[in-house]
Amino acid sequence: MxxxxxxxxxxHQFTASDITSSxxxxxxxxxxxxxxxxxxxxxxxxxxxxxxxxxxxxxAYARQYVGEVEACGLRHGVAWQQVExxxxxxxxILCEPGGEWLMDDGVRLMPRDRNEWxxxxxxxxxxxxxxxxxxxxxxxxxxxxxxxxxxxxxxxxQKQELDAxxx
Length: 167
Description:
Elements: H1 4-11, H2 16-21, H3 23-42, H4 55-65, H5 68-73, H6 78-89, E1 93-95, H7 114-131, E2 136-138, H8 145-164
Parallel strand pairs: 1-2
């Protein structure tokens, strides 16, 4: 699946700096991303896909840069309910902060420092737990693409085994 957030940024004339400079624009951007993610995933019913972002990203960013109450509000819409169920049924991989693979491409919001990066990661962990979404954490020490792909394939195989056992 093509990354949805980039399309939303372009289509609605947002920049990554809007996330940190304006709480109102940041919250609106996150709402639009959740809606677009739900629409993109909904178009792929009964099709296996890989997404490098999820609607959970939007809620984590809202928690980090807007506030707890506003972020919780993003989880009450129909779009959120649709994507939450897919995350619960899928394989979710959370990348540990510090990985060399995160690169500034001029679009992505980059953490200002390690504290900001680890804080955002903590929001992801808390949200996944609150939502009851199982996940595996890809250690930042796994640096080669081959090793990262193998990690994801192993997590997927483990999920298939658990599903076969009815868990």
